[in-house]
Specification:
mainly alpha, 4 helices, elongated
Length: 78
């Protein structure tokens, strides 16, 4: 199971991380507090994708200079 919480305040984050800091509450769980994109995280994500999805990501990132809008414009004109 993967849970993503967006838009939570610092107080919520502190309380949630404190909850998971207790070994009884996190048996077998992995908790990641920093979700900023890094080169390493992006590479790991791309390697986890199926071939077709990886190719699509390459088209968006490389061919579209990282902007999905450019890809949308390109494909909507066909």
């Amino acid at each position: 199971m993967k849970i993503t919480i967006e838009g939570a305040g610092e107080n919520f984050e502190r309380k949630l991380l404190a909850f998971f800091a207790d070994p009884e509450n996190r048996d077998g769980l992995t908790v990641t507090a920093n979700t900023e994109w890094t080169v390493e995280r992006a590479e790991r994500y791309l390697r986890s994708l199926p071939v077709g999805a990886r190719r699509f990501a390459e088209v968006v990132v490389v061919g579209g200079d990282g902007y999905a809008d450019q890809l949308r414009t390109r494909w909507s004109s066909r």
